Structure formats: structure tokens, C-alpha cells
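chain below, 353 aa
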Amino acid sequence: MSASASAQPAAVCAPAGELAAFVAAVFCARGMAKEDARVLADVLVWADLRGVESHGVERVPSYLALVDKGAMNVTARPQVHDLAPALFMVDADRSAGPVAMDIAMREAARRAGAQGCATGVVRRTCHTGAIGYYAEWMARQGFAAIVFGSGPPLMAYAGARTPSLSTSPLALAVPGGPDGVLMLDMASAVVSNGRLKQAAREGEAIPLGWALDAAGKPTTDPAAAAVVLPLGGPKGSGLGLLFECMTSLIAGTPLLSAMLGPAGKSFHMQSETLIAIDVSKFRARGDFEADVTALVETMRALPRAQEGEAIRMPGERAQAQSRARASAGVPLSARLLAQLREVAAAHGVAPPA
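prediction:
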């Protein structure tokens, strides 16, 4: 995942369906269409189920703040622009990211089914959410999927001490394997900015090497963390730089140069690119999925670096977490539960049970 799970103890465990219904009701109360609110809620709760709380219902208060500031347009109707049979662009008009991305992933799947592959670029979204959601959905429809994005500067470029790049997430997924999908979902940063903010809210110390403070010095205090560090130094920052070129710049909505340049503009916006490849155009889908499963089994059977240590596939831990939480419920910390109850009261909806 593009973020790590919190280790904080839970105050309660809320059923995923009830939590999604609560989130949807809150955004409907703010004027969002019922179907759009359902999509937004599904993406947030999907992240919580997989143990990525920093991208789950934790985001509800910050999303509402974006609505209050006018950065998120709850009544936006994202428009699909046809560029070529296998190329399209979605202008989100500052919609909630999941709303525009839901349209884009379905459009990519439709076009790839007809053309063999499809590429779509989404511009002018608010926070996109956990991008693995969109890659996984396309993979479950039989497509090899690639999704990556860019946004406001939060991460240092290698050698710099100020926010220079988005944390630039990347998700790749294919159909097959024991869980039906094999997926890698990660950020080009050591950790997501959302995870740092979550650690600060929970008063949880962070490891050295995650972030710098405002003076450019390494810190373990999440409250002092001002700049996220890139994964692998120049490798992570190189990914982030090229993702900006292949999302924001190709869509004609430069983000980083506008924010980092002399004008120093400040705004909340993201861009994403989705690529879908129809596996069945190359070979029988069932045969491909069987080969993915065989590959996973082969990798798991490799000699261990340490005796007794498991060899895990990308996404395996998150998928196991999702199965467990679908049964036991989504854990909510006392701090988050209190926040959600305040949100519920302010919007006249029932809080999570």
C-alpha cells in the first residue's frame, strides 16, 4: 500500500457496511449525489478494510474541510473527453477523487475490452484515495492495470530539503493468484503524508528516515515532520518527477511548477493516469491466471533467508487483513470515533454504531 497501518488500539469495531453508509450519508448531507457519495464511501472503507487507515474514514474530516474551502466540488460532473479509440481524458472539475476515478476505471475497461488496451488521464481531482482500489477493480475484470498519480509537493526531491514532489503513488495489478488478483500498491515516498498526519494525531513516534523537519533535519517527531523522504532516494524522487510529467503535464494542468515556481501558487489538486491491458487479447484469461497462481506458488516455495520466515506476495497481508475485518469490523480509535461523532452531529446523521 501507499501507506502503513496504524498500531493504535481500537475503541470500537464498526461493521464495514454501516461505516460506508455513515460516510455516504454525511456527504449526501453536504450536497453530493447519492451514487457519488456511495463511491467515495466504498473507496475509503476499502482502505480501512485493508489496514490502511491513513486513507480510510480518517479522511472524512479533511475532505469536509476541502468542501468548506471550495477545493472539493461536491456537485461536479466529471466529463470524459474522447481523444482516440484507446485514449481519453477525464476532467474532474475538482470532484472528490474517487468519483472521477470510478468513471475513469470503467471507461478504461470499456475501451480496453474493445481495443485491447486503453490509457486515460484524469485531471483536476481532489485527493484520489487509495489508488489500489482502481487497479484491483480493473484486474478483477480481466485487465492488467497500471495506475499512478501526482499532486501537491509533500516529498523532498533527492538532495533537496524542502517539499518538492508529490508522494506519487503507483499500483500495478493482474488477474490471478490465490486471492484472484496480484497487486502492488505503493508510494514513491518512504511513507504517505496521510500516515505522518495520522501518527501526529495519535501521538505515535515515527522511525528515523521517514521525514525531515522544517529546518531540513531528520526527525522522529510526527508533529515536527514537514517533508516526507523519497523511497530509495533518487529512485523514488525520479519516479515522482516522471509521474508529474505523465499525469499533470500531459493533461495540461501542471501542478509542481506552478507551486514551486516564483508565483508560489497554493491549491489542492491531483492528476492520475490509468492503463488497462486486456489479457485475453494475448491468450486465454484462464491460462494467464493459472500461470500467475503458479508463479506465486513458486515464489513462496523459495529457500528462506531466515528459517521460519514467510515469503509474502505483494498485497497478501492487506488482503488477509481485509478478510478478517470484513468479519470482525473496522477498528476505530477513540480519537477518530470522537471526531466521527462530531461530524455526525454537525450533519444530522447517525454516527457509526
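Residues 121 and 187 are 19 Å apart (CA to CA). The chain has two domains: 1-75+315-353, 78-189+230-301.
thats it, cya
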